[in-house]
């Protein structure tokens, strides 16, 4: 009897253990969809610091992906050039069904279907009331304000009447207000551009969109694209106002962001966005790096910017210039950096590409500059970072634009060219000054269009 009782107790214990085994916690969502009349290979999902391409099956006209998102919130699904607003939660599956050629066909399934259907209705309100951006910003001031107030009231009424979840409704009402304020802040510049009236200014009675604007709201920064853009624009304007003659804008922007923004998510994100490219352009490399490290509290960002800094140190002022070899010379043969050094001349190097509109705008000014410094201790070198497929286009561009100086063809794009990557070239055109002995004078020299900023450097060098 005791044996039977003991075995029974053991059996109960085993069953109890099995029953108490925790089930796996779902930490993902499934995003799926069916798109008719869509012929591309993928769709893209964008959100705050989130970007992912999702494969589209052209045979079945469907897509499906399992996603792990850190925060629920506003996202945009982009099918080719068509953006579709979505609200995603970390464990709530969402399905979207629509015809790519029919804007009125969008349907949603899943836990957030009510919110996502609201976004479709919101888009229709824009078309009904504002028509399009060009129409809106071409209106006279009074008509513009009347339309904007009508649109804002319509959206708030729509959001309240849709029985939306309370936590989302709270975010959305704030977002509607930021969208309204952003349009107000854009009105003066957009109206001036569309009406070709550069001297236009809003009246003194025009509402100030920045009245009471909060520069330090992490919640709004994450949830509202309009708030992010307003904050970025205002910091840009403040930095330009504070920037002293001869000082680096990117450095001033870092300092301005640190002074004006107190919330950690917004501040770290803004500092990082500026530093990713800014550190490759600033002439004050060490100061820029040190201030970024002091201001940011995001260890991942700091590690990445420090890695970039350590690469850029090797091409900083006073360092030996990286060598390039056997670039095709338009006048025949090949040319290496060593062929151009130790001849008593400084090198003013223009890194450009045939597809780059900004590069082409500098060409006439570059030609004028070369004419002005003809016979002086300065050699003008243009290096094309077009790939081999653009070889004939490179030669034709030189002919069409009557380009002068030493014209070299690398045969590789900047991201594939080892020499260019040592300078971490992020944008074109890029100008570099190298001394006769091969040391770097400036890895970020002013462009010809910057006038005295450039010629003052030449004067200091005794050219």
UniProtKB/TrEMBL annotation:
Subcellular location: Cell envelope
Alphabetically ordered keywords of this record: Cytochrome c-type biogenesis, Disulfide bond, Redox-active center
GO biological process, one term: cytochrome complex assembly
An example Gene Ontology CC term for this record: cell envelope
MF term (GO), any: antioxidant activity
Organism superkingdom: Bacteria
Domain Thioredoxin: 315-463
Protein name per UniProt: Thioredoxin domain-containing protein
Protein source organism: Tenacibaculum finnmarkense genomovar ulcerans
């Amino acid at each position: 009897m005791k044996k039977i009782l003991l075995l029974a107790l053991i059996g109960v214990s085993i069953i109890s253990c099995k029953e108490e085994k925790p089930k796996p916690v779902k930490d993902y969502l499934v995003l799926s969809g069916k798109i008719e009349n869509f012929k591309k290979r993928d769709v893209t999902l964008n959100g705050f610091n989130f970007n992912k391409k999702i494969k589209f099956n052209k045979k079945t006209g469907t897509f499906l992906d399992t996603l792990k998102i850190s925060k629920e919130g506003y996202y945009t699904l982009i099918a080719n050039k068509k953006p579709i607003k979505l609200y995603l939660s970390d464990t709530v599956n969402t399905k979207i069904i629509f015809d790519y050629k029919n804007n009125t066909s969008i349907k949603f399934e899943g836990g957030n279907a009510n919110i996502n259907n609201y976004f479709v209705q919101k888009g229709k309100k824009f078309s009904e009331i504002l028509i399009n951006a060009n129409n809106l910003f071409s209106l006279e001031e009074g008509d513009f304000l009347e339309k904007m107030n009508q649109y804002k009231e319509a959206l708030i009424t729509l959001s309240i009447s849709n029985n939306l979840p309370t936590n989302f409704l709270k975010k959305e009402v704030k977002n509607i207000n930021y969208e309204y304020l952003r349009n107000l802040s854009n009105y003066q510049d957009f109206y001036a551009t569309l009406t070709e009236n550069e001297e236009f200014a809003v009246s003194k009675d025009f509402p100030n969109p920045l009245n009471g604007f909060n520069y330090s709201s992490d919640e709004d920064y994450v949830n509202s694209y309009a708030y992010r853009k307003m904050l970025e624009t205002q910091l840009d304007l403040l930095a330009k106002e504070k920037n002293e003659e001869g000082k680096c804008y990117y450095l001033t922007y870092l300092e301005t962001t640190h002074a004006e923004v107190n919330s950690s998510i917004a501040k770290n994100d803004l500092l990082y966005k500026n530093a990713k490219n800014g550190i490759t352009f600033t002439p004050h490399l060490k100061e820029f790096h040190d201030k970024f490290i002091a201001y940011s509290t995001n260890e991942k960002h700091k590690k990445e910017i420090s890695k970039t800094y350590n690469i850029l140190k090797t091409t900083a002022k006073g360092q030996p210039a990286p060598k390039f070899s056997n670039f095709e010379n338009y006048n025949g043969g090949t040319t290496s950096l060593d062929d151009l050094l130790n001849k008593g001349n400084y090198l003013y190097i223009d890194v450009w590409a045939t597809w780059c509109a900004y590069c082409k705008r500098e060409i006439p000014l570059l030609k004028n500059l070369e004419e002005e410094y003809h016979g002086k201790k300065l050699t003008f070198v243009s290096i094309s970072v077009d790939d081999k497929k653009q070889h004939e286009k490179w030669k034709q561009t030189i002919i069409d634009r009557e380009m002068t100086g030493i014209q070299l063809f690398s045969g590789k794009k900047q991201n594939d060219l080892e020499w260019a990557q040592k300078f971490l070239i992020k944008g074109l055109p890029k100008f570099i000054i190298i001394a006769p002995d091969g040391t770097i004078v400036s890895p970020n020299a002013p462009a010809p269009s910057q006038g005295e900023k450039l010629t003052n450097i030449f004067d200091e060098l005794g050219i």
